[in-house]
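dumping this here before i forget
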Amino acid sequence: MKRILVVEDDVMLNSGLCYNLELDAYKAVPAHDAATALKKIRDKTFDLVIMDVNLPDGDGFELCKKISAAQDVPIIFLTARDLEADVMKGFDLGADDYITKPFNSNIFRKKVAAVLKRWAEPANQKLYLCGDLVIDFDKLTAAIKDEPVVFTPTEYKILKIFTSNPNVLLIRQVLLEKLYDVDSNFVDEHTLTVNINRLRNKIEAGDRKYIKTVYGMGYLWAGDKE
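structure:
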């Protein structure tokens, strides 16, 4: 049974989240502050952490760093802080999703299932080489000009989709379906845009452009096209 830590100081909301998770046969463990969450993380292994950003004894972003240092575990932020800067910061810290309040409980459950599935899938054994970029999809490592590049699990999945479909236009709806493996209606397109922009910042420099935007349609991996 998958164990999920729910870090939310609103007792009623925390109970509701745990109830919804247990409907899907997960073991939901509540924590109402950062200190309790850290203690539980250090005592037990979890398959997923769902956390608020505003906590009574600390900042969820700082808690995310401490949890990531203690365990290699996927993290979903669930918060009322919906400014673009906050969303970007969450993803930059390695979050696998960022859900803003208010939210639909069915979409929440779908997103939880999608994150857990992505982490459960074994990496495809393949070494991808393109110019200065090297990606090992088996070991989940990457480098540009022999300098290591750190990608999140979501970024690796986007890269796998792109590199498996070089020079092929992937419309946004198709890409979202492949990425989340759920009905595209449950996908936040902003999440995709944030991840694509973050990938560009990590791998593109100068004249070397890997991801081409086809405005109004989607994206194309042009890395294999010299």
